[in-house]
Specification:
343 residues, mainly alpha, two-stranded antiparallel ribbon, transmembrane helix, transmembrane, golgi apparatus
Length: 343
C-alpha cells in the first residue's frame, strides 16, 4: 500500500513538471541568452565545457552521456553540453537574482538544485537510497521471520498463505526505489522510462496483493483469475509508455486509480477487521496524508539541496518501517490462527 501511494504521487508530480514547457526561470530572456551563447561558443564567460564540441565547419557535435565511449561510472558524473549550459546559466542567473534580493525560481519545471558528484537532486537520491535500504531491511526481516522463526509445514513450507506474494512485493519495491534514486540522479529519457515503468509495475502488483489479502483469497485458481487481467493491463500499459507514447496525462490517471483503489481497500479492511495491528495501517494512511502537505507547500531547496519533495521522500522512510512491521505482524497473526485451527 505505502509504495503504491508513494509511486503514484511521484508520477503525478513528475507529470506536473513535464507539462510545464516554460517555467519562470527558463522564460527569462537573460537565461535564454546565456543558453544560446553557451551552445554557440561552448563557454559561459571564462568557464568552458569540454562536452561542447564543434566540427571544423562550426557545427555542434554532442552525444548523450550513455552514447559516449568512457566507462559508465565515469560518464555518470559528467553531463552533456546542454545539461552543463543549463546548469551553469541557472547558477549565474540565480546569483544575479540573489544580489537583487529576489527569490529562486524554477527552471524547466524544477527548482535550482546544487549538484554533488554529478547528481541532479542529491537529497532526493540519498532519501531514495534510504528508502531502498529500509525496504531491504523489512524484506530480509520478513524472510527470517517466515523461514527461521515461525513454524513451517513439514519443515519446508510456510503456514502464512501470502508469504510468496510479500517476497515478490519486496523485490519489486527494491527495484522501484533503485530506479527512483537513479532518476533523481540523472533525469534523462532512459532513466525516466525505467523509473516510470518500475513504479507502474509496483503499483499494479500492490493492487493485486491488496485485493488478495483484504478479501482473504487463498485459492490458487481464484488468485489467477483476479491477477490475470490486472497483469495483462499493466503489461500493456508499460509497453505503451515505453515503445509507443509516454503520455503523462494517461499515465497519471492509471497510477492514481490503482493507488486510490488499493489505499481504499486497506483503509476499509483496517476499519472492519479485528486485526491486532490494524492501527499500523491507520498510522501509515494518516501520517502519509500529513506528509502530503510538504508537496502542497512547495518551497525552493535550502542550500540548493533540501526542497519539499526531498523532505517528503524522507518522511516515507519511517513509514516504510511501520509498513513492513505490519506485514510481519500479519504473518504471525495468520500463522497463529492456522496453528490453532490445526490442533
Amino acid at each position: 500500500m505505502l509504495d503504491g501511494w508513494v509511486c503514484a504521487f511521484l508520477l503525478v508530480l513528475s507529470w506536473s513538471v513535464e507539462v510545464i514547457d516554460a517555467s519562470a526561470g527558463d522564460a527569462d530572456p537573460r537565461y535564454r541568452g546565456c543558453i544560446t551563447q553557451c551552445q554557440e561558443t561552448g563557454c559561459i564567460g571564462q568557464r568552458c565545457f569540454p562536452n561542447c564540441k564543434f566540427s571544423s565547419d562550426g557545427e555542434f557535435i554532442d552525444r548523450p552521456w550513455y552514447m559516449q565511449q568512457e566507462p559508465l561510472y565515469l560518464q555518470w558524473k559528467k553531463w552533456d553540453c546542454q545539461g552543463d549550459c543549463r546548469y551553469y546559466c541557472m547558477l549565474d542567473r540565480e546569483k544575479e537574482r540573489e544580489s537583487h534580493n529576489l527569490g529562486p525560481v524554477k527552471y524547466h519545471g524544477k527548482w535550482p538544485f546544487r549538484r554533488i558528484y554529478g547528481m541532479q537532486e542529491p537529497a532526493s537520491v540519498a532519501f531514495s537510497a534510504l528508502n531502498l535500504a529500509m525496504h531491504f531491511h523489512g524484506w530480509v526481516s520478513f524472510f527470517i521471520l517466515i523461514h527461521y522463526k515461525l513454524p513451517l509445514k513439514d519443515g519446508k513450507k510456510a503456514y502464512y498463505e501470502y508469504a510468496g506474494l510479500w517476497h515478490m512485493y519486496g523485490l519489486l519495491s527494491l527495484n522501484s526505489w533503485f530506479w527512483s534514486a537513479v532518476f533523481h540522479s540523472r533525469d534523462v529519457d532512459l532513466t525516466e522510462k525505467l523509473d516510470y515503468s518500475s513504479a507502474v509495475v509496483l503499483l499494479g502488483y500492490s493492487l493485486i496483493l491488496a485485493i488478495l489479502r483484504t478479501f482473504s483469497i487463498r485459492d490458487e485458481a481464484t488468485r489467477v483469475m483476479v491477477a490475470a487481467p490486472l497483469i495483462a493491463f499493466v503489461t500493456t500499459h508499460v509497453m505503451y509508455i515505453n515503445f509507443y507514447l509516454l503520455d503523462y496525462g494517461w499515465n497519471m490517471i492509471v497510477c492514481v486509480v490503482m493507488a486510490v483503489a488499493q489505499l481504499s481497500m486497506w483503509a476499509v479492511w483496517a476499519g472492519v477487521s479485528n486485526h491486532p495491528s490494524r492501527w499500523k495501517l491507520w498510522l501509515v494512511v494518516i501520517a502519509g496524508g500529513l506528509a502530503m502537505l510538504l508537496e502542497i507547500y512547495d518551497f525552493p531547496p535550502h542550500q540548493g539541496l533540501f526542497d519539499a519533495h526531498a523532505l517528503w521522500h524522507a518522511t516515507t522512510i519511517p513509514l516504510t518501517y511501520i509498513w513492513w512491521s505490519f506485514i510481519r505482524d500479519d504473518a504471525e497473526f495468520r500463522t497463529s490462527n492456522l496453528l490453532k485451527k490445526a490442533k
